[in-house]
Amino acid sequence: MAGYIFNLDSTEALDLYTRAGVYATRLSDPPGRWQSHHEGTFADFATMQPNDNIYFFIDRKIYGIGRLINIGPDCKYFNYPAASIPETPAYTNIRGELLWDEGDFSINQRCLCTFEPDPHFFIEGIDMDDVLSSNPRAFKMLRAFWKLSFLKFSDEENQAFRDILLKRNEDRLILPPHGVREHAAAYGNILTKPNIGEYNLFRGLANVLSSCADEENLRHEMAIEAGLLNQLHAQDPETIEVFGTWDYLSHQVVASPFKPIDYMDKMDIFGYSFIEGFGPTKNNYLVIEIKKGDVEPQDIDQLLKYVDWICGEYCFGDYSMIKAFLVGFNFPDDVLNHKTRVANRKFTRGMRPAQSLEWNDLTLVNYRFNEAERKLQFTPIN
Fold it and tell me: How far is 136 from 207, CA to CA, in rounded Å?
């Protein structure tokens, strides 16, 4: 199971969301178009799936544990049918359409997710330093939790969160204050909407891409990330034919030793897959670098830097587990030539016998936005 940690400003908000079983992120007003930070939030919601764990962060303390669950057909929705359009409607005009209503500012609570305690939301939070010191090697993304509304992290990091929260609360496995959860009202509002398909995140993200399109090109790389993650998570046949299927997908994942946040390298898209029927044992890792326009030779070098990072950090020297993709709008000849020269790695696997192998699993992929089909289309370059 993956995990998410949400940043809150008060224990009152924590009480509200945990009792309702709903969390909705508050975004800034879009200035007539979506900006990268909006698109990043949509990308994070796009890959949510049932059984992912959730936690809340308030004033240095971490509270948990929740588990995403489907209410109706999904565990995440747009909050009202036009929430994916970069306009700010009047609250009174859409109040009756809201799935989650906290008042006037709910017009900018564009996305929400639904969850239940797993096994409980514990009353006392744990200081962030205590969490980090409980398993230092496991926490990667938590160290980069800075100026973000929420963050996604991998199965291993999620288990480290669960471990410390359960150990510290072993003698206090009790229900939250006020007794049983009060999810019925919030969930009932979702279940009784006859047009719940209009709140669908996969469908709505087409509006996000359209608002960022300049004919076949998208103006923001973050929008491409959101669209690609959305199509991969939904297992769009044409998309998985190019990139494959993956059990875990995320974006803007740390790919450098810990240092000041503004200087950290981050992979545009990162993922992994399990051996079928034998998870959580992993058999492949995914890394995708995205460029909205012309690709340059140095972009291949950057992607290979991420490949080397994954090999050392996750694969322990076995390059054969890595599949790399460079997505762009246009690939000049010097990029193709540079790939031929540098996009390979020689490595040794095993001891007795040792195998001398070569890795060259880097694929160049053209993207185009198809307005008629309202989706991204991807074509590998042979």
Answer: 41
Q: Tens of pLDDT along 120-153?
A: 888 889 999 999 999 999 999 988 888 788 999 9
Q: What is the SS3 assignment for 243? A: helix
Q: Which of 143, 148, 147 is nearest to 128 (CA)?
A: 143
Cα distance between residue 149 and residue 273, in whole Å: 27
Rg (CA), the chain: 21
Domain borders along the chain are 3-199, 212-380
189: exposed, middle or buried (C-beta count within 10 Å: 0-12, 13-18, 19+)? middle
Exposed/middle/buried for 271, CB within 10 Å: 0-12, 13-18, 19+? buried
212-380 CATH: 3.40.1350.10
Q: In the CATH scheme, what is the homologous superfamily, with its name and number, of domain 3-199?
A: ph1033 like domains (3.10.590.10)
Q: Whole-model pTM?
A: 0.93
93 Cβ contact list (under 8 Å, min separation 6): none
